[in-house]
Inverse folding.
């Protein structure tokens, strides 16, 4: 008789385990949704904005896409794509703007280290961009080349300053704030991954993921969005200057389709600069621990 009762006892014991497993699964799903819903919202919003632009009258679209108005259209695009989702996130999450726009002052030492690390990461971005340019058109170059006819301050404002502000308040502001529960490394990866996806082309995806990850680490360590804004501004500014040097006839493989020989040179430079980057990052990490 006892032998028949044992399976019943095991079945009874397993019921709470199954219930707990189902409860934990629901909690996990709810946590993931609470920590990541901003990004699908941003992707959906971006998709709808692009559909809306397709229905604009042809004269307006032609003016919007003309080289003469390119700097203004780039700034407007950044504002339209990123300000409304950030405002919606603030409204829904009931977070204070100061909790998202962490504009805590950077020390000169932090600013110098971030500037140095940003420069040291450039060859890695160049190498990855050179590889992906062998398979897909270089979207960044298509935007940067027409800027050669604009005054340098206008180019810096539209290509470097505007993305550094609008994209950072979205990816290292709202998204990083929401995903903080995953921890420093995971939330930085999430920020970098979706930063790459939002560029909407495979050529830029790999190196923007890397840069987005690094920018997020800078914010985590300093507690200031100014750190990623500075790094983003420097990265785009250097890319702009390299692009304009190409237009002026100076050869550079950073934003063109690179030959295998070019990639070997840039890859070696990336390896050397990374060897310098990591000890500097450790100093930066200790400074902000």
């Amino acid at each position: 008789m006892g032998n028949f009762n044992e399976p019943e006892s095991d079945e009874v014991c397993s019921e709470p385990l199954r219930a707990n497993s189902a409860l934990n699964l629901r909690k996990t799903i709810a946590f993931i949704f609470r920590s990541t819903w901003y990004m699908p919202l941003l992707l959906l919003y971006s998709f709808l904005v692009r559909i809306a632009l397709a229905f604009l009258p042809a004269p307006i679209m032609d003016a919007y896409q003309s080289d003469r108005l390119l700097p203004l259209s780039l700034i407007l695009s950044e504002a339209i794509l990123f300000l409304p989702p950030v405002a919606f996130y603030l409204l829904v999450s009931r977070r204070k703007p100061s909790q998202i726009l962490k504009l805590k002052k950077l020390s000169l030492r932090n600013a110098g280290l971030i500037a140095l690390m940003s420069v040291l990461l450039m060859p890695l971005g160049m190498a990855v961009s050179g590889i992906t340019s062998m398979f897909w058109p270089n979207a960044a170059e298509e935007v940067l080349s027409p800027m050669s006819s604009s005054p340098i301050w206008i180019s810096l404002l539209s290509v470097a300053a505007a993305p550094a502000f609008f994209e950072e308040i979205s990816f290292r502001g709202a998204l990083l704030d929401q995903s903080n529960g995953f921890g420093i490394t995971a939330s930085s990866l999430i920020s970098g991954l979706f930063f790459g996806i939002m560029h909407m082309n495979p050529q830029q995806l790999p190196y923007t993921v890397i840069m987005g990850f690094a920018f997020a680490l800078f914010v985590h360590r300093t507690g200031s969005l100014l750190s990623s804004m500075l790094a983003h501004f420097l990265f785009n500014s250097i890319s702009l200057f390299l692009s304009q040097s190409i237009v002026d006839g100076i050869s550079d493989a950073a934003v063109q389709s690179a030959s295998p020989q070019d990639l070997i040179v840039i890859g070696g430079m990336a390896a050397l600069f990374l060897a310098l980057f990591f000890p500097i990052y450790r100093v930066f990490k200790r400074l902000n621990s």
